[in-house]
Amino acid sequence: MLRVEDYELIILLYRCKTIRAAAKKALISQPAITQRLKYIEEHLNTAIFIRTPKQLVLTPEGEAVLEHALELISKEEQLTQKLAELKDKVAGTLSLGVSSLVSQHILPSILRTYAERFPDVKVDLVSAVSAEIKNRAADFHVIIVRGEPLKGMECLSLFKDPLYIFDTEEINGTKERPFIEFKADNEYQQLIENWLFHSSKLNIRRTMKVDHFEVAKKLMAEGLGMTVLPWSLMCKDKNLKNLFYAPVCVDGSSVQRVAWACVKPEQKILSQVEAFFQILKENSATQDMKVIE
Q1: Do strands 204-210 and 227-230 pair parallel, antiparallel, or not at all (unpaired)?
Q2: Do 14 and 66 meet the contact criterion of CB atoms below 8 Å apart?
């Protein structure tokens, strides 16, 4: 008889595409996964995957097994959450979709506090740019994004994050400097474009665009040009304080992004979700939750 762990392994293999990647994700050896998969296929008397040189490919029978596995795991999670609601203990799974910057520099200390207080909760965290998290909002209990909050959700303002321009040379506009950009969501990009349009005092040459803000930060620190970074990074990276920096302003006003934690009201009744929001409130600039129309 197959166990829940066996169905979880099938899902993991499907998502990771290779036994090597699945072993790395699950922190177990490749031979152990291979042996377990062999047992599962023998038990079901069918091949679930075709092994190709590049990846695992589902067989038609494997597709049916995967569908059953997904349904089974979903029902297991529903049962776990239902039982958690019936008990005083905070337990179950907390699914989080979080902006990359927040997940790297703000969230770890919050999750440490959460894990210490509620060790029976399993945290499932996905980190990506805010636009991607917003598009997948239905997949998570709580989303934490930068920019505009999501409509129809209860949203908590966590902090305001002004943007600053950083450089290894003095920022005065007397010398032309390369500008290092990084890929971001459309909302952030519009802020930068609007600022560049109004930044007549700076002599900027747009010559480089990278895939991540951490790459832009490192290239800037090597003297390859200036870049715009959120102030929250300076609070975590002491090296940035030794560089030249100036606020990004348009018409005398600071350009900034607000970080929001958003949740559907019907999901906030889950004990693990409510407990997480209580910790967020302790770390936020405001104590007020409000529904965004």
Answers
A1: unpaired
A2: yes
> Which H helix or E strand runs over 169?
none
166/179 Cα distance (integer angstroms):
10
Render pLDDT for 154-178 as a digit per residue (tens, 0 to 9): 898 888 888 999 999 988 878 889 9
Q: What is the CA radius of gyration of the chain?
A: 23
The H or E element spanning position 166 is strand 154-167
- The answer to whether 228 and 256 are in contact (CB under 8 A) is no
Name the amino acid, one letter, at 206: R
**Cβ-Cβ contacts under 8 Å for 211 (sequence gap 6 or more):** 182, 183
Q: How far apart are CA 196 and CA 192, in angstroms?
A: 6
Quote the pTM value: 0.62
Alpha-carbon distance of 131 to 149, in angstroms, equals 11
Asked whether the CA dihedral 54, 58, 60, 62 is positive or negative, the reply is positive
What confidence tens digit (pLDDT) does each residue in 67-98 have?
999 999 999 888 887 777 767 778 889 999 99
